Amino acid sequence: MGTLYEQLSLRERVEIDIGRRKGLSMQAIGQMLGRSASTISRELGRNGSPTRHWRGSYDGERADGLAARRRRWDARHKLARQPALAITVRDYLAMGWSPEIIAGRLARQHGCTIISPESI
What we know:
By secondary structure, the protein is an all-alpha fold. 60% of the residues lie in helices and 0% in strands. It has two domains: 10-72, no CATH class; 78-110, no CATH class. It has seven helices and no strands.
C-alpha cells in the first residue's frame, strides 16, 4: 500500500509563509510541519511565483485560495466546456477536415492556439 497523503491546510500554508519569511530552509519547514521537503518545494513552486496579477512572493492565504480553485476546476474535455467551439469543430469534421487542419485554421483565425488536434 502507498502512503496516505493529505492536502496542506490553511494553517500549514501560513506556517510555510512564516518560515520562508524567517529564512528557514525547506527541510526545516518540512520538519516543523511533519512534511517532506519535496512537499514544501512543490507548494512553493505551485503557489509562490509572481504572475501578471500578483507581483508578491509566496503568501499562505493566497496559496490556499489558489489550491481550492484548482480543486474546483472543471477538468472536463475542452469541447464539453465550450459548446460554441464544439459546434464549430463538429461542422468542420462534418466537412471532412482533419483535426490538424481544424486546429490550424482556428489558430490562424484567432491569432493563437485555440484547441490542439489531440483535444479534437
